Amino acid sequence: MPAKSSTIVTALTTAAVVAVGVLGYQAAASAPDTLTEARKDSHHSTPKKQPDRSGKKEKAPAPAPVPPASGKGQRIVYSLDAKRVWLVGAQEKVRRTFTVAPSTVSPPPGTYAVGSRSVSVTGSDGIAIEHVVRFATVGNVTIGFSAAVDGSRPTPDPSKKTGGIRESRDDGKAMWDFALQGTKVVVVS
């Protein structure tokens, strides 16, 4: 075969290999990864939401309603039974609601006021805490909302008298911004 023919055959072969490679790449990119899907299990995959075929947006669940016997006006409402807090602003609008981890000593139901605040201290359980909002004293135990700096919400040791009502760090920041000195705190059952 002459040299010119050999060069043409090589060029055509190279072009064919490139074309097959491109087509193979495109096919692989658009095909589902069945091997990866087969390896996923319920511990490592997140269930996919099915699209809402009605065209309506999915609604988030309604927040827990403010307890009816919690007063009026701007206030913090703390439900002992529900282990939940509501930050209620003007016109009875709930700015935020969240669950908390109660302390071993709880304040009796009633109306209190934020008496002191600390940006960061060590809690009575020895854990570094932030955004401390104190509002009551029961015996010699000070009661207040706080967030652990490490984000934990451990179950309090029942043999110790502690007054820290623990919330998440995000909730603690929201409480700190809302609960200025003198803000009303209503504790309900």
UniProtKB/TrEMBL annotation:
Key words of the record: Signal
Disordered: region residues: 33-73, 149-170
The protein's name in its UniProt record: L,D-transpeptidase
Transmembrane parts of this sequence: none
Biased segments, Basic and acidic residues type: 36-60, 158-170
Keyword Signal annotated: yes
Taxonomy, superkingdom: Bacteria
Signal peptide from the UniProt entry: 1-31
Source organism of this protein record: Streptomyces nigrescens
